[in-house]
């Protein structure tokens, strides 16, 4: 593929090409030219190759704290970026390891089998009233509410109490994007204020009266090796248990629906071979991941990545959407192969900052796929009436018009 000047310019301005119907041919051409590219718009290096992304994800010379320091210098103290320094995805080194161990223990306490049954029942209720042959927006039907009720169930917070917080999830997430402006910083500040008013009273209540929920386990006990302040817990809950799931899982579900609609034979094969559900989940994560790039790091010293020399202090991110289609790793990378094995996709960022909620995302997507397989013969999507999200490093839909038959 020969890239046009507008396509190159678009990548330079925002390498995730938000809202683009199919950025992957553009990624492929640029990856062939050089798997590590400089992007002038956000002012950072973008890694498009699979081996190079893996090396970056495991390189402790890359510091997310140092990148935040650059944003703090640019936007000032007492902004969202200063607060992010206390959030787990932005921590480095031993502090990161200690807090991550504590948070992972809370995740491990989740009864995944019981949670799967919870999802099955929720989806049954949402789908039982769906009339086959009628067009409906998938997002309010089940894609958006599923992670909300799952998160509320795990934290012991009813979904109906979360309305105001949900309105600010987008602002919170965009303040973690590749390109930051005064508008995205202000949106993040506003989201943190709302989150604080909602979550801090809940945290204080759980300190007084612990329950059998993830929130209480995060707070811990005096016997735990770590004690977190309300501010630290606020960030961990807002980020790892709330915004990450509630923002990205609906996008993942919408991308899955589109793929099944484009290739009707996939649903039929899953009906015949339900044992392929897990493989399907992994291939959906590889083929069109909801998070196209990782949080940004800055390099502490000059490093060599691929054929590029990245000077100390420069910022860098991994474009996993591009890496997941690297032909050096994946056979027929642009084909959706239901039984692809092995499938070493990078959508959960294997490495120092691997996604903590990967089991929950897999569980929720698998529950949705199973519900469709058991109930319907075919999914259709009206792409003309649907609306893609235009949101920095994320891919998916705000509106997805779907018809079941």
Secondary structure elements and their pairing?
Layout: H1 5-13, H2 24-33, E1 36-39, E2 44-47, H3 50-57, E3 62-63, H4 64-75, H5 80-84, H6 93-108, H7 112-127, E4 135-137, H8 138-143, H9 145-155, H10 163-166, H11 169-174, H12 182-208, H13 214-219, H14 230-262, H15 264-272, H16 277-287, E5 297-299, E6 303-305, E7 308-310, E8 315-318, H17 320-323, H18 358-375, E9 379-388, E10 397-404
Helix pairs in contact: 7-18, 9-14, 12-14, 14-18, 16-18
Write a structural description:
This protein has 405 residues and is α+β, with helices and mostly antiparallel strands. It has one domain: Orthogonal Bundle (Cytochrome p450), CATH 1.10.630.10. Helix content is 52%, strand content 11%. Helix 7 (112-127) crosses helix 18, helix 9 (145-155) runs antiparallel to helix 14 (230-262) and helix 16 crosses helix 18 (358-375).
